């Protein structure tokens, strides 16, 4: 991209130069702040990525354990245990709530689980079926807790990913478009102001030369007028022509110059 297209179309004046310099300072500060924000978000992004990997591994273990527990329940109590469990459950004891966490100006959604109420163990004593159901329930509760944590991490991960992309686009725009354009504009204005200053200097020199020539012309005219007056007076006194009087004055001036030098 050429320098002409990289600068703004502005009038090259001192006032505009000050405004462009202030805008360049603001763009530089904004670029530094956005760069720090991008670095902070990237650090948080990597931490969340590590947590997601470890949480997924834990979730695989918990899901495997809970599946085995469900298989043991079906083996001990039979397939009809499902209806018995559903009849004894009225309200959910494990609930999820959401909140937001501010990280470098980015609001990350967070999901938290909490227990509400107490769980009644009404199936104990039925040929160890109740105990197996309780173990299966505990295994699935742990799996749900890990699942909620994973959902929170993945949601924060996606939100951070979008925020980092937006911030990096702004950083690149300031670094590669806005700042070079302002810098080129400042260089253009400085060049134009220097050119105007050179033109003013040349104009002043021409005016001074014209005044000097005019002064020399006026002095020469005054000297010629004075010489004419003296020649006319001499011609009247000596009774000679004006040209002869001029010749005498010229010879007298030459003699004076020879004496001086």
Layout of helices and strands:
Elements: H1 3-6, H2 14-77, H3 81-88, E1 94-103, E2 106-115, H4 129-238, H5 242-260
Antiparallel strand pairs: 1-2
InterPro entries: V_ATPase_D (IPR002699)
GO molecular function: proton-transporting ATPase activity, rotational mechanism
Family: Belongs to the V-ATPase D subunit family.
Describe the protein in words.
With 261 residues, the chain is mainly α. It has one domain (3-193): Helix Hairpins, CATH 1.10.287.3240. The longest helix has 110 residues, at 129-238. It is built from five helices and two strands. A two-stranded antiparallel ribbon has the order 1-2. The chain has helices at 3-6, 14-77, 81-88, 129-238, 242-260, and strands at 94-103, 106-115. Keywords: Ion transport, Transport.
Q: What is the overall pLDDT average?
A: 80
Span of the ends, CA to CA: 70 Å
Elements, N to C (H/E): HHHEEHH
Number of domains as seen in the coordinates: 1
Q: What fraction of the residues are assigned to beta strands by DSSP?
A: 5-15%
CATH class: Mainly Alpha
User: Based on DSSP secondary structure assignment, what is the total number of beta strands?
Assistant: 2
CATH architecture: Orthogonal Bundle
Relative helix content: over 70%
* Radius of gyration (Å): 49 Å
